[in-house]
Known about the structure:
By secondary structure, the protein is of the alpha/beta class.
Amino acid sequence: MGGERDEATTVRHLVVMGVAGSGKTTLATLLAERLGWRYAEADEFHPQANIDKMTAGTPLDDEDRWPWLRAICDWLSEQTREGTSSIVTCSALKTVYRDVLREADGEVLFVHLTAAPEVIGGRMQQRAGHFMPPTLLPSQLQTLQPLEAHERGVTITVDVPPEEVADRTIAALGLHVAEDRET
Length: 183
């Protein structure tokens, strides 16, 4: 039985977190490519009712979030059972939300992306086709609880091009780029 736990802890999961517009998808895509890890976008785990609510400009409440967070946690555990390290984007704005994600099998590490509100707001204004309107940014910033000392992960400032943010993240976590990654 000890062997099973040892095997599970060798699988790592990165949760790229932060408010909307902080660059979660961009960074997660780069990290997945460089590390050769499986990637999922947290938005894919939202039920349609949550998407409809956010599209209408209404912030989600905790009752909306619990099933979404549980689905992400279950996906992470499934990756562990398959022996696959993974990366998922998730706002994970509150410690209690991250607590749910930490329940996943394997080692869960958080990458909190941060920048000045005006930088993030500008990014949100420029992106097209996303259901999260810029008007919800103040609500997200108010809800955000930065990583606490007991939480495993790093905080990365996104004040440089995405490739450099990926370099910073890999270095801060002590990860190694996959040598045989596909091109």
